[in-house]
Amino acid sequence: MSFLARLFSLRGRVDRQTYAIVGFTLMFLKYGVDATCIYFATDVFWTPFDYLSPLFMLRQERLGDASPAFQLFLAAWTLPFLWIGVSMTMRRAYDAGHSGWWGLLFFVPIVNYVAMIWLCIEPTREQRLAPDREPKPVVSESLANAMLAVPVSIAVSALLLLFSVYVASSYGMALFAGTPFLLGAVGGFLYNRAAPRSLTGTMGVVLLSVLIAGGVLILFAFEGVICLAMAAPIVTPVALLGGFFGRAVALFGHQPAYPAFAAAFLVMPAMTALEAKLNETASYEVITAIEIDAPPEAVWPNVVSFTELPEPSRLLFRTGIAYPKRARIEGSGVGAVRHCEFSTGSFVEPITRWDEPATLSFDVLEQPPPMHEWSPYKDLQPPHLDGYIQSRRGEFRLIALPGNRTRLEGSTWYDLRIYPAGYWRLWSDLLIHRIHTRVLEHVKRETEAL
Asked: How many whole angstroms separate alpha carbon 179 and alpha carbon 47?
């Protein structure tokens, strides 16, 4: 087996010398590439403290105005290092005579550094490893294992989800990464514990667990279809990685796994509570622009208030996402109050700058829910619809162009409290851009029709 294959493999031992050399080498490599890319992309110097900090949102704020695409690149670049870290930690634990479940400590902030130092010191202990076995074509036993793996993994993840959302009030990495990973790990472990099963079958059990868990959330009115669909691109791959991990623990483990599993289950709520206390709110600006064949003086009245918009044709707004319908204003100048009425309610926007016909700025005093969830239940209101994506202020800028034309720009500043912010920002920016576009195109039509 090549050195590269050994890095990603879940087979074989890793002695403490190899673990230390490879671990520290990859750590320095990743920090060097991260720091270089971040410096050239944002002009921010990524210090070793930023790299080692367990405060995810502290890192997020240090990225400044880095684009979502760049943040996705950083996330994709991190994935292979994450897998190598987990797999080598698991195999090092085996080599030191412990259960592979201790590899989950790699995900726990601060504790992971202690665990890595501990495994760099722990000596190799001789033991008889479980022999490799080929999957057995015993349908009834395989089905029985699946019937155990699916409900248990769903129950474990449901408890963690309920704690995260309804106790800790946190939509963070512990919820969107730790919980699905543990769901997959428990399912993969239980499905392969009695006898080794195929990798394809294991992944099928994990995917089935994810689908049923989503159905349970919809059935018991915890979540709606659209939000679960938005979470699926990050939840599903993480759950599958957990399935790989759990299967490997079951096939190659030699120590009782349940004590370590119980410890991992208890650590997750602690991670969630810590994350809820330490995470900071990320703030972003979304800018959308359009050009109008009219001077700013003609555009201004349709910006201050606008008539009824036609029903949306975009599929996005037909899924329940809030969309603007009309706007009216009470008063004139600074201190006036603008009411922008959406499909879910009304934004209350006191005017803070009235520079006719160039700039209209306003704060957001009140805002309606960002969407009506698709659900069998009427008026479903999961907690994340209340304050986790919060508009703070907005602004229209009218810039005169040659030929009596106008560049109309709309900006929205908003706070985001759902993590990983780099991923959820993709959705929030998209939705706000679509809302901006709907308003700006209406202003363009109304103005040019005069």
From this structure: 30
